[in-house]
Each structure stands twice: as structure tokens, then as C-alpha cells.
Amino acid sequence: ALPKDQINVAHVNHGLREESKEEEKYIEKFSKEQNINYFVYHYAFDSLNNFENQAREARYNFFAEVAEKTNSKYILLAHHANDNLETIIMRMLKQSSLKGYAGIEQITKYKNTYLYRPLLKKSRLEIEQYANNNNIKYFNDYTNETDDYLRNRIRHHIIPYLEKENHNLKESINYFSEALLGANRLIEKYCFDFISEYVTIEDNNICFSIKDYLRLDEYWRKEVLVTLR
Q1: What is the DSSP letter of 44?
Q2: Which of 89, 106, 117, 214 is least buried, going by the fewest C-beta atoms within 10 A?
Q3: Which residues, 6 or more positions from 24, have their beta carbon under 8 angstroms from its beta carbon?
């Protein structure tokens, strides 16, 4: 376990719910009792249009600022297997890249630090059971129970049917995600190998032989162009 002086708590209060005040007070109280540094950011938004994406960007920027200020190498996030399944289905509905269809990666580089999701392979039920069995206090966000957002509708109406069809859905999704991420790594390597051998970049001009390019399969051509973009 890390010494407490190497742990920092970073909390974003979106101010959308009355309960968020109680949650912030609890985090502050817990951090003080444990002698852990904590940072709170009150996110101010202009409208609810595209709120999810804007709020996510604001959160990550805040976390990165705290990491830089405290010289932290890792930012730990609480994404779990259910979050990953919801993300995969959302991207299937909206179209994405192969890497996008794979869902959430367990560890990713973000600015000068790394985002690490230690609970990504665990289901929400497993996490709740662990918290209840060990008397760990947690909060439920009631806005997750509404159907206002696509993610919530997927959670309430699509995933329950999938779970009925496959009682090992979590394991299947973990395998699906890992398989696609592995395939994407091979694609990226192939594209970078082609670029390294056949592409020259000078003064922001990208040059390559059309003859070499047309030797590629149609799928690889698109991926090379996406990589160069």
C-alpha cells in the first residue's frame, strides 16, 4: 500500500444535485480523518447541451492539474465493467474506430500522467457487494436512474436483456475488449511500419508513392490515412 502522503483525493462537484453538497462534505471529512490531501473543483456549466462530454473534459483537466501539482504519476478512476459495456454499445450505435469499439482501456496516457482504472474488470454488483460487506460508505447518483441520457437507457433497457442471455456477460465483454485492443495494436504497428518505410514528412508536407500505397488492402489504406491525419 502507498504511504498516505503519496495519495491525493481529487473530487469534482458538478452542482447538479442537492446531494452533491453532502458528498463533498463527506469526502472532505474522510480525507481529513485519514490525513490525506484533497482537492475539490466546482464545475460551472453554461447549458446542459453536450454536458457529458464537456464535464468529462473538465474533470480530466482538473485531475491532470492536481497530478502535476502533487507530482503524481497516476490518476486512478473508478470505471468498472458495466461502464465499459455501456461505452461499447454506445460506440456501436454511433459508429467508431476499432479501438473505439473496444471500449475503455485500463491504462492510458493523458498529458503528463497516466489514467489507470483498477476496477475495470469488476462489475458494479461485485463492487457494491464488497463495499457492503466491508462497511464502506458510498453514494448513489439518482440521475443515473433516469432515461435522460443514452448511457442510462442502455443501462436500463438493453443490458438487462443481454445479462439474461449470458450470465457470464462481464467475462465476455472483458474478452471482447481485450481482443479488439490487441487487434488494434497490430493495426497500429502495421501502419507505423508502412509510414516509417514509405512516407516522408517535410515542412508539414506528407509524401508517399501511390504505387506503394495501392499495394495495401483497402482497409489498411484508410487506417494509414487516419494515422497520418
Answers
A1: -
A2: 214
A3: 11, 13, 40
Side-chain-side CA neighbours of 174 within 13 Å: the count stands at: 12
pTM (2 d.p.): 0.87
The answer for residues whose C-beta is within 8 angstroms of residue 143's C-beta and 6 or more apart is: 16, 17
Provide the 8-state DSSP code for 141: -
Burial 100-114 (b: 16+ CB within 10 A, else e): bbbbbbbeeeeeebe
pLDDT tens series, the chain, 229 aa: 677 888 999 999 988 788 899 999 999 999 999 999 999 999 877 666 667 788 889 999 999 999 999 999 999 999 999 999 999 999 999 889 999 999 999 999 999 999 999 999 999 999 999 999 999 999 998 888 889 889 999 999 999 999 999 999 999 999 999 999 999 999 999 999 999 999 999 888 999 999 999 999 999 999 999 999 8
Residues 6+ apart with CB under 8 A from 7: 36, 37
